[in-house]
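User: Predict PROP1-like PPR domain-containing protein's structure from this.
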Amino acid sequence: MASLYHHSSFPLSPPQQLTAPEPPRAPPPSYRISTLPSSSHHGSALPRPSFACHCKAPPRDHDAELLRALQSNGNGTLHGEPAPPQVLDSRSDGPGGDGRGERPRLCARDCAKRIMELPVEERVKVLDLLQRDDAALTVSDYNDILSALGRAGDHASAVALFRAMPVAPDAHSFATAVQCLCRLGAPDEAKLALDEMVARGFRPNAATFSTVVGCLCKRGRVTKAMEVLDAMRALGCEPTIRTYNSLVGGLCYVGRLEEARDLLNKLKDSPTTPADIYTFTIVLDGFCKVGRAEEATAIFHDAVGMGLSPTIFTYNALLNGHCREGKPLRAFALLMEMCGGEGACLPDRISFSIVLTALLRAGETAAAWQAYRRMERAGFEADGRALDTLARGLCRRCAADASALGDAREVFAKLVASGHEPVSYTYCLMAQALARGGEVDAAVALLEEMVRRGYALRKRAYTDVVRALCDRGRARDALRVLVLVMIVRDFVPGRNAFDALLGELGRQGRWTDAMAVYAAAVKRGVVVSWKHLGREEEPVRLGVTQ
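Assistant:
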């Protein structure tokens, strides 16, 4: 099709499939047509098939033809062949033109790239249209191509084709162009196209008006959107609930929440366009985003009172509102109601993530653990960051509740298995929890893993491990931990770690080892207590066994 792509010296269909070619046309003197070798034509230019000839052709592989069209470089030659001189369209200024200015054109391969994504029936139909001459195409044919490009997502090409149509567009052409302009994020151009459509005597339908209203509202152009709404009513086209929902969303977007709520209240009592659950959800979400969750809750109950079923978006907006206001326990209670099966809407992964993150941030570890277990039961997985935070919370809880150690180990194991690397602080808290819970060997192994990975060690972590080993009379293992810290990581242990080890060595009567540890502490500037180097009943001389 000449208006869709540059003139080509060969048709889109393969040469051997042509049945009755026309006699070759004489090329204009301003350019030379590139030829393809052919035994039947003895090197002459391959003729362009007529429409009648095309109809008699046997069934073709349209996908192969589209792929062949994609090989074209847009000027009638295949990639790698020399390009002929630029072909001037009959509507452009220059030799053979009529002086009306150059008209924008599309390249066939650009259209074909998108059209190939459509179902077989649609792309076959459009391919047939692309191979015709401009004179053979009607406005209905152009509408089919416009619609195909729009469905394929190539909105820019559809708009360019609409502007280049040699025939007068009809209502369907304008409606498609308006839709594509809105998809391209050009509300001003879409409104101009809508105004021209009305000026030419066409009557847009409610869907076309609603598309423009929605596009304007998404960019905060609420005043312009209201003008379109007034024009819609003036033409006798009744706005739909989709139109009103777009307007309500625009009002919330620019912060005009009271107007949005007033419009919602009017729609609640409207006999023709009553508010649906999406209208309530939009207003509810607007109030939640500005920290007015109590008013959002009232709107939620109004929707339920009207017999509407809240969607997952409604619940998630309300959950997010409670968490934004620092009320994670209220959000947790609402989440448990959703899990209870009383409502028709079960929580999704986003619902659990909103509440779990807020509970962990507020330090509500017990509730966070319950939410996590519910999340697992529902078949969802928490992200690595949430698991990391939950593991730290459970480790801290172990100080008051020894039964939480098993939960902490389970979460920590899942965190490591998920591929998310725990932070150094989480490792240290886990080592402390294991040491306090009596799993000293696991705590030592975790410290060694931290040293191997190059993590920073917290003094409190290895001090608790040293104390736990000393309490069990394992002075040699405690000394090994201190050596690991001092020699391998080049850290200076704190006084409490040295005191614990000196006390255990003194209890075992290993004074020589105690003096060596004491000397190491003094050398590193650590002041240790003398009471661990002798018995309280009688003073002793250092280094002399009593």
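The chain has 26 helices and no strands.
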